[in-house]
């Protein structure tokens, strides 16, 4: 049994090394009408990561058919598939589209005070009727994203799943799960899913609270992207997002802004 695991591990690692060796450094260029610094570029196929420079340039390992996911707070997320031409020329240009936040409708109602705690308490909003109220069975879980499905498939099944075949009588081991663990695919997918979750949460918080946070703060517009990225990198950030406590999240963002400002002041003084 131990011998079989070792052989499978060596085979998986061999293929991983071959695939990585085929990738080249692609010099990319992000194009937009405004600031293009600090934008995340993720090679979803190979789990490679890069961040754009002040002029929008970046370098990332990739090959033909790899998918790059470009994530930004200011621009629409974009997926780009590397072509043979990109690989041959070792260059790539990507045009970004700025996000437009528009209100769907204007609601005339109670006057808001600007205090999140007070406005939540005074709100007359009522919970929508759901299938529990009607006695109808249903599912409250959101559908998995594409990356979450990949992670589920890669790490699915139990270690005790039996496999028949030439080994006779079946082995108490899930080889699909084992190979993904050995090759590092499962670990890479977990990193990608976590990045997705962080981006999703910080984008929602920025949409909801940016005007509140910077109502009396004069942080330059071009530094706000850096501040929000700084805020989402904290190890406790995802845990706070999962708690779904808006007051705690707003307090967290305000505290992070103070820390961010102190860090910049220290860098300026050095």
Question: Top keywords for this entry?
Answer:
Immunoglobulin-like; 2 domains; four-stranded antiparallel sheet; three-stranded mixed sheet; 270 residues
> By helix and strand content, what is the structural category?
alpha+beta
Element order, helices and strands? Answer: HEEEEEEHEHHHEEHHHHH
Average pLDDT, all residues:
76
Number of helices: 10
Percentage of residues in DSSP E strands: 5-15%
What's the helical proportion of residues? Answer: 40-55%
| Large-scale geometry | globular
What is the alpha-carbon Rg in Å? 24 Å
Low-confidence stretches: 161-172
For the termini, the CA-CA separation is: 59 Å
State the major sheet. 4 strands, antiparallel
Total domain count:
2
Strand order of the largest sheet: 3-2-5-6
| Structure summary, number of beta strands | 9
Describe the protein in words.
The protein is of the alpha+beta class. The protein has 2 domains: 2-95, Sandwich (Immunoglobulin-like); 132-264, no CATH class. Helix content is 47%, strand content 15%. It is built from 10 helices and 9 strands. It has helices at residues 2-21, 84-89, 116-122, 131-134, 146-154, 175-183, 185-213, 221-232, 237-243, 246-269, and strands at 24-31, 40-43, 48-51, 57-62, 67-71, 78-81, 91-95, 162-163, 171-172. Strands 3-2-5-6 form a 4-stranded antiparallel sheet, with no helix packed on it. The protein has a 3-stranded mixed sheet with strand order 4-1-7. Helix 7 crosses helix 8 and helix 8 packs across helix 10 (246-269). The longest helix has 29 residues, at 185-213.
């Amino acid at each position: 049994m131990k011998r079989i695991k070792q052989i499978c591990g060596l085979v998986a690692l061999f293929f991983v090394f071959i695939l990585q060796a085929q990738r080249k450094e692609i010099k990319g260029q992000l194009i937009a009408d405004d600031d293009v610094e600090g934008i995340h570029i993720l090679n979803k196929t190979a789990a490679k990561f890069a961040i754009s420079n002040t002029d929008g340039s970046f370098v990332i390992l990739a090959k033909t058919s790899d998918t790059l996911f470009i994530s930004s707070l200011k621009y629409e997320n974009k997926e780009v598939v590397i072509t043979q031409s990109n690989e041959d020329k070792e260059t790539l240009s990507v045009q970004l589209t700025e996000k437009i936040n528009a209100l769907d409708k204007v609601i005339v109602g109670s006057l808001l005070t600007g205090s999140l705690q007070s406005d939540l308490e005074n709100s007359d909003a009522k919970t929508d009727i759901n299938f529990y109220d009607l006695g109808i069975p249903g599912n409250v879980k959101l559908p998995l994203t594409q990356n979450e499905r990949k992670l589920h498939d890669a790490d699915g099944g139990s270690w005790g799943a039996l496999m028949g075949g030439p080994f006779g009588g079946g082995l108490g081991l899930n080889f699909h799960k084992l190979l993904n663990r050995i090759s590092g695919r499962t670990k890479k997918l977990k990193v990608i899913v976590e990045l997705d979750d962080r981006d999703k949460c910080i984008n929602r918080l920025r949409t909801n609270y940016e005007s509140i946070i910077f109502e009396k703060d004069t942080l330059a517009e071009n530094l706000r992207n850096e501040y929000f990225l700084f805020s989402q990198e904290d190890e406790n950030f995802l845990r706070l997002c999962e708690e779904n406590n808006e007051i705690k999240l707003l307090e967290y963002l305000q505290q992070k802004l103070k820390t961010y400002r102190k860090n910049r002041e220290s860098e300026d003084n050095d």
